[in-house]
Write a structure and sequence with these properties.
By secondary structure, the chain is mainly alpha-helical. It is built from ten helices and two strands. The chain has a two-stranded antiparallel sheet.
């Protein structure tokens, strides 16, 4: 397949983005449709299932149209995607454990068993996180990421996709500082992971773990939380310390992932090599 011009590239990326926006629009509509909403008996699983399936179909369609295999995302059987997902989940759990320590030290929190914990709530929250993150990773670290990286290197798509990832969370109502310190820097880490190892399942495992472990530990208190916190220090200074520390940790890890071994893989995103390695047939 001949290398696409910059104009053709951006047209393809724009078309994919419009398709992804359509997937998200349907997802948001269903998520606010009471019979299948998050508060419904199905716990919002149907909307995220639609998001995961539609974004998967969209990604596969665009890859196929460009003559690319799903190997470019690390999704083929020889690449052991389930093993990579498991490794990512362990790494994401460790990262979230570090966030847990930061919150505990900054607020002098004590943790006890949550009397309102419900196993069904944790299971449904875990399924919701898995399907939701499948859709997000396919949109943010899928086709568009690869096509931009092939032509412009890995840093631009890491920053661009993380910025859009953060903006959509801000639009959803999260406070700006939380979005900048948590969501944006976590997006950089997910993007760096995919750029370094070319494995969407690895990035997905980290992403899913950060959501599930936050739910289970009580960092996001709910009926899915096994533990519940008592905070002895709740102040602007403590919140600032938490946000700054989490942001610094995420940025250090993301920078380390991107920079370590960069010389050995500096040609990984060059068009000819990337396309030759992943083209079907």
């Amino acid at each position: 397949m001949p290398e696409k011009s910059a104009r053709e590239l951006w047209i393809r990326v724009l078309l994919f983005s419009l398709g992804a926006a359509g997937c998200v629009f349907v997802y948001l509509f269903l998520l606010n449709f009471q019979p299948v909403a998050r508060a419904s008996p199905t716990a919002g699983v149907i909307p995220v299932l639609v998001l995961a399936v539609s974004s998967g179909w969209l990604t596969a369609r665009f890859l196929r149209a460009d003559g690319l295999s799903q190997a470019i995302l690390g999704l083929t059987a020889p690449q052991r995607p389930f093993l990579h997902f498991g490794i990512g989940f362990i790494a994401g759990s460790a990262l979230t454990g570090a966030w847990f320590v930061i919150v505990t030290l900054a607020t002098n929190a004590t943790w006890h068993l949550n009397a309102k914990f419900a196993t069904v709530s944790l299971l449904s929250a875990s399924l919701f996180a898995l399907l939701n993150n499948v859709g997000e990773e396919l949109i943010y670290r899928g086709y568009a990421f690869v096509r931009i990286a092939v032509h412009y290197g890995e840093f631009i798509p890491v920053v661009v996709t993380s910025t859009i990832f953060a903006l959509l969370h801000f639009q959803a109502g999260l406070p700006l500082l939380s979005v900048l310190a948590g969501v944006f820097t976590a997006g950089l880490l997910f993007g760096a992971t995919f750029a370094r190892w070319r494995s969407l399942p690895l990035a997905l495992g980290i992403h899913v773990a950060t959501n599930i472990v936050q739910e289970a530990t009580g960092l996001r208190p709910s009926a899915a939380s096994i533990f519940s916190p008592d905070y002895s220090t709740v102040s602007v200074a403590a919140n600032s310390t938490i946000l700054a520390s989490i942001a610094a940790l995420n940025l250090i890890v993301a920078a380390g992932i991107l920079l370590i071994g960069r010389q050995r893989r500096q040609d990984i995103w060059r068009p000819n090599k990337s396309l030759e390695r992943t083209r079907e047939g």
